[in-house]
Amino acid sequence: MAATMRSISRRDEMSLAEPAALPVATSAAPRLHVLKRFSSRLKASLPAYFLLLPSLVFLALFTYGAMGRVLIDALYQRATPKAPVRFVGLDNISAVLTDPAFTGAVVNNLIYAIGTAVPSIGLALLFALALSRTHAVNSALRAALFLPVLIPMVAASALFLFIFLPNVGLLDYYIGRLLPVLPNWLGDPDIALYAIMIITVWKNAGYYMLFFLAGLQAVPEDVMEAAHLDGAGPYQRFRHIILPELKPTFLFVTVIAILNAVTQVDHVFVMTQGGPSNSTNLVLFYIYQQAVEHYDVGKASAATLLTLAALMGLTALSFRTMANREGGP
Amino acid sequence: MKLFDALWKDAPLATRGEITPKLGFLLTVLLAIVWLIPFLWMGVATLRPASDGINAMAELMPSLKPTLDNIRDAWEIGDFPRYTLNTTIICSGILLVQFFTITLAGFAFARLSFAGKTLIFYLFLMQLMLVPVLLIVPNLKLVAQLGLYDTLAGVMMPFFASAFGTFLMRQAFEAIPTELEDAALIDGASLFQRIRHIYVPLSMPSFSAFAIISVTSHWNDFLWPLMVINSPDKRPLTVGLSVFTKTAEGTQAWGTIAAGTLMVIAPLLVTFLIFQKRFISSFVTSGIK
């Protein structure tokens, strides 16, 4: 046994020295050779596998395994909460798709995604352009705009609960006086979704600003100056030099903003519980409701599966972007 | 105008007269003030005595008779010391295990060649895409099966492996000259000794960047602990604050809510103000947490 191993490793050394000559030398048993080469490569890989094992165990349990379990759970259902699970095929999926609460949540989530991504990215770009030069004043302003990023969404919700409080809250106290009718920010089904969007924009714009600030570093100063000498005004310089340079940043930030619109919805839990009349129900809250409040793991898994699938397109996109960012293996 | 000139003194000479950038700057200053208002209100309301009445609650001018009653009330109603302890345990537990897993995996990707490297690299990359919070339902089931429902370990476990951290460490390790390792190799240092005594000490900036991202994101986690934790004495700060807010909202105790919120975010804000530069550069590297 030990002898074969030694011969394998010696052959491996040879192959490292002159890889082209080897197939000719061992042409007697090419298949065996491939096998041996494979096993020797595997043996050489063992230390790496050993180092990767702790990470792979947890990834297997909580990422890949979780995906597998969602797939299976989505195919089973209980007749009553105490009954044993039975295979129902795609029934859960169709039940979710025909559930007006789910379709409503999807529509809400789309509005929420666009309504939070566009303003927060726009503001982030404005902040970054205005504060791109580093001096004490700008650093302080950046820090002020970045503060909401640090605090938990739950804490932000606690503050905005009062800001949106009818009549005595901060918003009504200062701005409400100017309006003829005071809106019930969180109580009106037509307004509540937009009210919680404000929190998200407030919380995320400073985060996206950082990426634009980093992106602006790549805009060459001399090109800007040359453009100016050629008579390009601030808008033209922005449109034809800065924007093209920031294109990758835009793509990256948009992906993060959309992911956040699906996953960062703690304020719905604290402030509105999806209400009034489901107007702020978002997909993740729907999943939570099905799993925790209705004990319906089948439906919750089906909704998770659909959400994961919907994010796949986005995933593929960001996958490519990020593979480029990481520089490949 | 003098102030403006000072702010633009390093801009190209000819562009200093332009008006659009200055308007943009003014707008940003205004918005930065708006951005700070919730924090300002939190501070003012915390110190406002209940005797000022509900109608003065929104007033941003500090009360003339500041009081610490709200902080005392919040401290007594909510179990904040316990919540803080739980959150600290969760964050440091996650971070410690992550340091271990990402160092080993990062080293494997940076310095070793092995069969299936590309495949495993993409397996890691996939974790960056599959935002863990979407997998709460299957993961809750698994945590329950492992007997970890309603335990802090159950809250921590899904985050023990970190693709983001692994890539960060890979990058840091790749930047370390191989000559150092070769020298240690000649002296007979084992794999673990080389990692422990050469790679880890030279990668401290990356470790601290990762620590900032990891701790802030898990300090702020809400939905996952909400699902895993059932007993009140195991709640982390976020879950504790949401329960506390619900209770105090019923009695319209907004000063107490402000005080409770302040207590939850104060540790993060203070740390940020001290290590501002480091925080900002870490968040830039974070992309997706």
TrEMBL record, chain A:
Highest taxon, organism lineage: Bacteria
Record's GO cellular component terms: plasma membrane
Statement: the UniProt record of this protein carries the keyword Zinc: no
Record GO biological process: transmembrane transport
UniProt domain ABC transmembrane type-1: residue ranges: 106-318
Swiss-Prot/TrEMBL keywords: Cell membrane, Membrane, Transmembrane, Transmembrane helix, Transport
InterPro entries reported for this sequence: MetI-like, MetI-like_sf, UgpAE/MalFG_permease
Membrane topology term: Multi-pass membrane protein
Transmembrane segments: 46-67, 110-131, 143-171, 191-214, 249-270, 300-319
A Pfam family matched in the record: BPD_transp_1
Cell compartment(s), UniProt: Cell membrane
Keyword Membrane applies: yes
Similarity comment: family membership: Belongs to the binding-protein-dependent transport system permease family.
Protein name per UniProt: sn-glycerol 3-phosphate transport system permease protein
Species per Swiss-Prot/TrEMBL record: Bradyrhizobium huanghuaihaiense
Organism lineage: Bacteria, Pseudomonadati, Pseudomonadota, Alphaproteobacteria, Hyphomicrobiales
From TrEMBL, chain B:
Transmembrane residue ranges: 23-41, 83-107, 119-140, 146-168, 198-219, 253-275
InterPro entries, alphabetized: MetI-like, MetI-like_sf
Domain of life assignment: Bacteria
The entry's keywords: Cell membrane, Membrane, Transmembrane, Transmembrane helix, Transport
Record-linked PROSITE patterns: ABC_TM1
One Pfam family of this chain: BPD_transp_1
GO biological process: transmembrane transport
Domain ABC transmembrane type-1: 84-275
Family stated for the protein in its record: Belongs to the binding-protein-dependent transport system permease family.
Protein name: Carbohydrate ABC transporter membrane protein 2 (CUT1 family)
Source species: Bradyrhizobium huanghuaihaiense
